Amino acid sequence: MRLYDIEITSPLLLGTAQYPSPVVLLDAIAASGADIVTVSLRRETADGSGAGFFDLLQQTGCRILPNTAGCHSAQEAVTTAQMAREVFGTDWIKLEVIGHSDTLQPDVFALVEAARILSNDGFKVFPYTTDDLVVGEKLIAAGCQVLMPWGAPIGSGQGLRNPGALRAMRAHFPNVAMIVDAGIGRPSDAAQAMELGMDAVLLNTAVAKAGDPEKMAQAMAQAVEAGRMGYRADPMDRRDMAVPSTPILGLAELA
Amino acid sequence: MKIIVNAVPHEVTASMLAAALDELGFTSRAMATALNGRFVPGKDRKTTALSEGDQLEVLAPMQGG
Fold first, then answer.
1. Which domain holds residue B54?
2. What is the rounded (10 degree) CA torsion for A179, A182, A185, A189?
3. Staple partner for A28: which of A88, A201, A213, A226, CB 3.0–4.6 Å?
């Protein structure tokens, strides 16, 4: 999978929030096999713990994808992205512009506006978007080479609410790297996203809030791999009725 | 002068951003600053003047999804 100018091996991107401890986080990252982890920027505390967290992540060797989580306007997201570029030393940005505080649904109008400003400023934008084709087109026109449609609301663990829309996106943008971001709850959800032909899955809560985050990270890694192989193997078409798999020819008459 | 730092009012004697950060005890190598909603790069902090009532945000790496 190529994300902008970088070739990435693992189809699993992992968030770093909500883990019971830093040790569990590191174990989960290792078990997931992720090449990319997401981070955020928040107000610096008196103890300067932010630098320690950054050091911890750098030990993993993973590429850092900072987010603009919590931003509700294009201006806030652009400023946050500029700050993230300086702190993390990367021009990659997971662009979130939240439009609704209950559903954490993207404000796609502000998203496109911020994506254009940031792309023009040299950022490589990973937009957290809906599964709307027209918005996808506008994000690509704004300079995005990756699309990150939601599976379900952030942190909900509902799985893919609208697989048909994601399938349509895959068909409509065959050459754009596509990552399902948000809503994954179980390994089967991650496998389903990959079976639809997505290039990768980005998840956080499903691993961090599992009873055993390390084991769930491993399960997710296997699920995305299975889903990817399944897609490449070209699954059979669904049928409405049963079709016997055992040959009819040569069946004995015993009645 | 009084400025707002990460939503908390502070009294600072420094007139430039870099000196104010030192005065406030922000010494981390991994932090970024914004003044009144606009990003101020690290290289510009010494030449960025503060005004009464300015809103300063000092951000650092944190866990994120």
1. 2-59
2. -30
3. A213
